[in-house]
Design a protein that fits this description.
The complex is a heterodimer of chains A (123) and B (428). By secondary structure, chain A is of the alpha+beta class. Helix content of chain A is 24%, strand content 35%. Chain A has a four-stranded antiparallel beta sheet. In chain A, strands 3-4 form a two-stranded antiparallel ribbon. In chain A, strand 3 and strand 4 form a beta hairpin. Among the domains of chain B are: 154 residues, no CATH class; 113 residues, Serine Threonine Protein Phosphatase 5, Tetratricopeptide repeat, CATH 1.25.40.10. In chain B, helix 6 packs across helix 8.
Chain lengths: 123, 428
């Protein structure tokens, strides 16, 4: 089994609208189905990017800590939440991710969770 | 074919089947590829002297599997190295003959393994260029160097691309399985697109000095036949094979005695491969029968190719039917290259003014040498040689390959010495 993070992205300008409440049933039924099937390993919804605070030691670890309002970069799409999905393979993960409302409100990015005892891929 | 070539062909053909089975057994594409590669080298070294074994596939399978286990053992022996979790120690068998017998998979199993490999290589979670590279490596059995040459990138670049693709398959767990029937409509197009892209690069190279990339054309046909054999009765698969055969049939006439490209309008049609056209026509008829009146995109393209194949000459071409087919294809999805070919057909049927209007109605082609060349043609026929010359110069600057550039240079020369001659069409 492989653990995937399903990262939910919404159009930044439509992150928090009246429609948002209408999504809830979709999320509730995805959550229920995925839980019953035993594939849901966690997940959270995030406050909008306007609530974000970004910190960085911009000049390296010994430089001053810089604290700024908002997300790190202005983007057309904002990260709005995530689920952890445990699936046999990518096709099964895709099948579940396709039931998350973010997939039609925005996008869902599926990323395998990096196993902490192995080398990273693609480096 | 020389005995050496036939031997190499057997190794390559059977090697592909062995690879497909070994990926399933080992669960590791990279390991399976390396092992099959080593087994192929061993076969080419020993078979010429010892003779080809009765069951070459079983020989290759056992040899490749043993090579894989050797590699795994070496890997496991390295300090601090995690061993692969789902690898179980190999059975130690003294009796190779018995083992060969056990490893000789029935054809139906090999068939399923190959089909799994097709869909894994062409999984939509892989970038198109990675799909193409994997298909040529794993399915067509081409060496990395040959794939790199085919796409005119350095071998190290192609090797990295393949490594990244295999890592993605392993880490993202792209499954090694045939999609269920219900998934097929969304998964098959990627498979066909990979083959079509290889064929397109063969027939209209994006760079280099060849009129047709004969090597790539053969690979595309090989893949199309393989997939058609694995999925019999799929109308779009049959249509794609038909389309590829129609196009390949024209190859003998696409190059003149001087090695320069010859446009479709000017080709000596007696030099076309009429056996290939016959096979393509029969396949298309079969696809039509099986598709129940709903022509997919490849069937439409095969019909278009068929129109040209049956026309006695360029002026005798059934332009009404061609324009109708393009309208159908363009109604399904916008495609500037198809719109360009449609405009060329309009210029033939309705005259250069209508053709020019159609050409100017297409957006996004100002970087296409074919668009400028088609405009030049219409402008010349309209008696506007100055503008035609400007268009030909623009086309020459944009033409991707040497043959394209030389063809346009010839047209520039001809334009300078001629007025009001019949028009030329593009063989694209």
């Amino acid at each position: 089994m492989t653990l995937y993070a399903a990262l939910l992205y919404y159009p930044a300008d439509r992150y928090w609208t009246e429609e948002t409440a209408e999504w809830s049933p979709g999320y509730a039924s995805f959550g229920a189905d995925a839980s019953v099937a035993g594939v849901l390993r966690g997940g959270e919804a995030l406050d909008p990017p306007g609530m974000a605070t970004t910190i960085t030691f911009a000049g390296g670890k010994d430089s001053d800590l810089v604290i700024t309002d908002g997300p790190y970069a202005e983007a057309k799409e904002a990260l709005g939440g995530f689920f952890l999905i445990e699936a046999a393979d990518l096709d099964e993960a895709i099948k579940w991710a396709a039931q998350i409302p973010a997939a039609w409100r925005g996008k869902v990015e599926l990323r395998p969770v990096f196993p902490m005892n192995g080398p990273p891929a693609g480096q | 074919m020389s005995p050496e070539d036939r031997l190499a062909e057997t190794v390559r053909d059977e090697g592909r089947r062995v690879l497909a089975t070994l990926i399933r057994v080992l669960g590791d594409l990279q390991l399976a590829e390396d092992a099959v590669q080593e087994a192929a080298v061993a076969a080419l070294r020993t078979w010429p002297a010892a003779g080809v074994p009765d069951d070459p596939r079983a020989w290759l399978t056992v040899t490749a599997r043993n090579k894989a286990y050797d590699m795994l053992r070496r890997e496991a022996a390295r300090p601090g190295k995690e061993t692969a979790a789902d690898w179980s120690a190999p059975r130690q068998s003294a009796d190779l003959a018995q083992e060969v017998l056990e490893m000789a998979e029935p054809d139906s199993v090999v068939h399923d393994d190959l089909l799994r490999l097709v869909f894994t290589c062409c999984h939509p979670a892989l970038a198109r260029e990675a799909q193409v590279a994997l298909a040529l490596r794993a399915l067509a059995g081409l060496e990395v160097a040959a794939i790199a040459r085919a796409f005119l990138v350095p071998e190290t670049t192609m090797a990295k691309r393949l490594v990244r693709a295999r890592q993605k398959i392993a880490h993202a767990r792209i499954p090694y399985r045939v999609p269920a029937d219900i998934e097929l409509p969304e998964r098959l197009p990627a498979v066909l697109a990979v083959v079509h892209l290889i064929a397109t690069e063969a027939h209209a190279p994006s760079a280099g000095d060849d009129v047709v990339r004969v090597d790539l054309e053969a690979e595309a046909l090989r893949l199309a036949r393989l997939i058609a054999g694995l999925m019999p009765g799929e109308p779009e698969v049959i249509s794609l094979l038909s389309l590829l055969l129609f196009t390949a049939a024209r190859r003998p006439a696409r190059t003149g005695a001087d090695g320069q490209p010859v446009l479709l309008a000017d080709q000596d049609r007696s030099r076309w491969d009429h056996a290939a056209i016959g096979e393509a026509s029969a396949l298309l008829a079969d696809a039509v029968r099986r598709s129940g009146g709903v022509a997919g995109p490849y069937q439409l393209q095969a019909h278009l190719a068929a129109c040209h194949a049956v026309a006695a000459s360029w002026p005798d071409t059934d332009w009404d039917r061609i324009i109708g087919l393009y309208d159908l294809a363009l109604g399904a999805s916008a495609n500037p290259a198809m719109a360009l070919n449609r405009a060329v057909a309009v210029a033939q049927r309705d005259g250069p003014a209508a053709g020019l209007a159609a050409l100017d109605g297409i957006g996004g082609l100002t970087r296409s040498h074919l668009w400028h060349a088609a405009r030049a043609d219409a402008l010349e026929r309209l008696g506007r040689p100055g503008e035609a010359r400007q268009e030909l110069l623009a086309a020459t600057g944009l033409a991707p390959t040497g043959p394209d550039q030389r063809l346009l240079a010839r047209r520039l020369d001809a334009l300078a010495t001629r007025a009001g001659q019949p028009s030329r069409g593009e063989d694209r």
